[in-house]
Structure formats: C-alpha cells, structure tokens
From TrEMBL:
Domain CUB: 20-133
Organism field: Desmophyllum pertusum
Name used for this protein in its record: Tolloid-like
Range of residues in the leader sequence: 1-17
InterPro entries: CUB_dom (IPR000859), Dev_Immune_Receptor (IPR050328), Leu-rich_rpt (IPR001611), Leu-rich_rpt_typical-subtyp (IPR003591), LRR_dom_sf (IPR032675), Sperma_CUB_dom_sf (IPR035914)
Pfam families: CUB (PF00431), LRR_8 (PF13855)
Keywords: Disulfide bond, Leucine-rich repeat, Repeat, Signal
Length: 317
C-alpha cells in the first residue's frame, strides 16, 4: 500500500474528488499525503498566486523512502519542484528520503510540483502548508539555484547576493551557503533556524565579533564551517554541540584568547581543525580527547607556551 499526494485548500473543494492533477489559486492551503490503494502514482499540481506575489511552501513532515538498495534513478520515489508553471521552468529541487522541516519559495506567482511514487517505494508521507506573499520584502533575484539528479545523487545549489534580510529570505533547501566578504558584524540567534539541510557554511572574511551559543544549533547536517578572518575574541560554551556531522572547522585569523574546555566534545567526526593566527595562550586539558578522527590540526601563530600533559594523546599520528 502506497500513499498518494492530495492537496486541500483551506477554502475550496476537496481535492480528493479530482484526478491526480491540480490547479490551485487559493492564497493559502495544505499539502498532505493520506493513504491510497494505488500502487503507482504520478501526481502534479500548479499553485498560482496573485500578481506581484510569490508562493512560500513549508513542509513540516517529509518522508519519501525509495528502493531498499538506496539506488536513486528515474523511477525513484521523489518530489520535484519547479519555479514556474511547468516542468520546463527552473528546477528548485528534487527531494527524497527524510528531511527536517524545510521551505521553498517561488520567484514569481507560479510553483509547479510533481510527485512520483515508484512501485518499490517503502514510505510516502509528508505534510506542509503554502501561502502567497508579496515580493517586496524578498526580491526575486536575491537568491537563485537549481536542483539536479546526477549519478544517482541529488544536489540543490544556491548562490545569494547579500541584503540586510538574507537570513529571512534565503532558500531553506540550500546545501551550500557562501557569505564571505560581506562585512557581516553579527548573526541573529535564529539565523539558520530553517536551514537544516546546509552542509557548507562559509562566513569567512567578515567582521563578526561575537556569536551566540545557539546560532548553529539547527545545522545538524553541516560538514564544513568556515569562520576564518573575522574579529572573534572568544567562543561560547556549547556553540558546536549540535554539529555532530562536522568534518572541517576553520577559525583561523581571529582574536580568540582561550577555548572553553568542552567546546569540541560533541564534534567527534571532526577531521580538520584550523586555529592558526589567534591569540590563544593555553589549551584546556583534554580538549582534543573526543576527536578520534582528527587528521589535521593547525595552531601556528598563537601565544601558547605550555601544553597540558597528554593533550594530543588521542590524535592520529
């Protein structure tokens, strides 16, 4: 038994009475996937907003499990989204598997979605809401991107020009976010709250002086974090505590004087750590004990005169 996508508008006719192809013009609505007896499904729908509006879709639940062997091909269960009125428009992304809550936004007044459920799908379950919103707050050309399916792997790339409200308007499906050399001085506490799909975040060559302990808490998929060449004079306890998949951390060329003892405890997957050209005078005992995968450590250009006994004991040769 598989699940079929149905769309119900907050106001309007129940979509269950129509074929699996929908044209929606309401200002808001719900997307959900109740159970169905169908074994093969290809559903699509076109959402149209008023002139000078864009469409903002948020998926609170998203589970699309494909073939048991993990192969991702043209027959795989997936949701594809285009920034326009058909599948010839710019692709906004191709989605499958289990996702944290995420959002999509069109650049214009149309958004086209297609759900393909493969015969061997294990689970198809998701629910989200959409609303239309004026485009004056988030200019359409601030961020652009595309989704692709290459060699059995999905990738959603975005590049952004930096406006004052970038953290409000950036696409939440982005996997890479590069904000270097933008004269950023501070990051709001919830800057990346809906960007749980990020794998690379580059904030280097800015003017950031302080970071809150919760600023990166939602980036559980992050692999690479670049904070080099800023004006950081310290790091709060717990700032990296939720980055359980982090592999590369660059904090070089700042003004950090000391490191909290447990700041690296939870980043057990870390492979590269760059702390060069700071003002560090000493290292807490056991600071590297959990970093069993660390293969690169750079402490050059600091003011360290004495090292705690055994501080490098658990590191690779």
């Amino acid at each position: 038994m598989l699940l079929v996508l149905l769309l119900y508008a907050f106001y309007g006719k129940d979509a269950n009475s129509a074929p699996c192809s929908f044209r929606i013009e309401g200002s808001k609505g719900i997307i959900r996937s109740p159970r169905s007896e169908s074994i093969d499904t290809n559903c699509s729908w076109l959402i149209t907003a008023p002139l000078n509006h864009s469409i903002f879709v948020t998926f609170a639940t998203f589970q699309l499990y494909y073939k048991a062997d993990g192969e991702l091909d043209k027959e795989t269960t997936r949701l594809q989204v285009w920034d326009g009125d058909d599948e010839y428009a710019t692709s906004l992304g191709i989605f499958s598997g289990t996702k944290r809550p995420f959002s999509l936004q069109s650049s214009g007044s149309n958004l086209f979605l297609r759900l393909i459920v493969d015969l061997d799908a294990l689970l198809c379950n998701f629910e989200g809401t959409y609303v239309s919103m004026t485009t004056k707050d988030c200019e359409a050309d601030r961020c652009s991107g595309h989704g692709s399916l290459v060699g059995g792997k999905m990738k959603n790339d975005f590049s952004c020009r930096f406006p004052a409200n970038i953290f409000k308007c950036a696409p939440t499906i982005a996997t890479d976010m590069i904000l270097r050399e933008n004269k950023i001085r501070e990051l709001p506490e919830n800057s990346f709250h809906y960007m749980g799909m990020l794998r690379l975040l580059d904030l280097s060559w800015n003017k950031i002086r302080r970071l809150s302990s919760d600023v990166f808490r939602d980036l559980t998929e992050l692999r690479e974090l670049k904070l080099g060449v800023n004006k950081l004079d310290g790091l709060p306890d717990g700032i990296f505590s939720t980055l359980s998949n982090l592999q590369i951390l660059d904090i070089a060329s700042n003004q950090i004087q000391k490191l909290p003892k447990g700041i690296l405890t939870n980043v057990i997957t870390l492979q590269q750590l760059d702390l060069q050209r700071n003002l560090i005078e000493s290292l807490p005992a056991g600071i590297f004990d959990s970093l069993k995968s660390l293969s690169y450590l750079n402490l050059l250009g600091n003011k360290i005169s004495i090292l705690p006994p055994g501080v490098f004991r658990n590191l690779k040769d």
